[in-house]
Amino acid sequence: MFSEPAPKSSKIFACSKSVELAEKIAEKYGTTLGEVKLSYYSDGEFQPSFEESIRGTRVFLVCSTFPNADNLMELLLMLDAAKRASARHITAVMPYFGWARQDRKDKPRVPIGAKLVANLLQAAGATRIMTMDLHADQIQGFFERPVDHLFASSIFLPYLESLNLDKLCIASPDMGGSKRAYAYSKFLKSEVVICYKQRKQANVIETMELIGDVEGRNVVLVDDMVDTAGTLVKAAQLMKERGAVSVRAVATHPILSGNAYERIENSALEELIVTDSIPLKQPSKKIRVLSCAELFADVMYKVHHNEAISSKFIM
How would you classify this enzyme at the top EC level (predicted)? Predict the structure, then answer.
């Protein structure tokens, strides 16, 4: 009667603010989202619960941990619930890994927030982490669990190729993004320029200079995230002043806080291309969204079926 082991299934669930993306992922995966109920107390405390059995299954929890902190807390609670419900494997699918800018101590008496989040995820029950375009690659080393670090370049590069831009030039808006810019330029066989910026404080740029020549070129700025859009807008203006024919930008994670939308609308940017790792707060004629659902669905399927996923790590 029990001679054959029961088949191991997989189920996909989502935190409340990532349902739209999770539904796309589930559709590409060939399934539907599992049911989660979120109950609230009068003081704002909340409790998620799985409304179906997950015993012995591989659970994928889709949740981008962008502000506010409720998104991270909801993911932690769902991880704990899945662990206590005897899920076989629990993968935290985090298209956007929040708190990643705190990846080191850049001055005395500050936390390393990314390491703290890694510890919390593991303590809550995550047996695997799946994310995309971390702000700093070394964050993978903060985990004692497998980390699948995917690249949005597999989404952006085909789109950039379809534009057939003459005299293409890839640009990094800061020194930290030079590795990413060189990877794009190698694939597209283009020139590279780099912006050098100095900040007064977080989100406030004091000076910006350009290393390289953009005169007569179509420039594409490449970054992992866009927050206030101050850097991208200033870089785009600098490129135009130095003779660029057009300036576009690709940024994986559209945080877009403060007056970012207004800045982008009034900027020299032709368009800003982003993924749906974070839902847009409002539409914009200058922002084009490319979905990362197929990328995640493909990797999730391969992970569940123990297939190689190394091809997805090539920039």
Answer: transferase
Q: What does the alpha-carbon distance between residue 267 and residue 110 come to, in Å, rounded to a whole number? A: 34
Residue-range domain boundaries for the chain: 9-149, 151-290
The answer to whether the beta carbons of residues 287 and 232 sit under 8 Å apart is no
Q: Tell me the pLDDT band of 209, cut-offs 50, 70 and 90.
A: confident
- What is the enclosing helix (H) or strand (E) of 62? strand 58-62
The answer to whether the beta carbons of residues 263 and 237 sit under 8 Å apart is no
Q: Is the pLDDT of residue 232 over 60?
A: yes
In this chain, the answer to whether the domains covering 9-149 and 151-290 adopt an identical fold is: yes
pLDDT band at 205 (very low <50, low <70, confident <90, very high): low
Per cent of the chain over pLDDT 70 is: 94
In 136-294 the beta strands, taken as DSSP E runs, fall at 147-150, 168-172, 191-201, 204-211, 218-226, 246-254, 272-275, 287-290
Annotated catalytic residue 285: no
pTM of model > 0.90: yes
Whether domain 9-149 has CATH 3.40.605.10: no
Does the domain at 151-290 match CATH 3.40.50.1000? Answer given as: no
Find the catalytic residue in 107, 167, 179, 197.
197
Predicted local distance difference test score (pLDDT) of residue 208:
83
pLDDT at position 27: 97
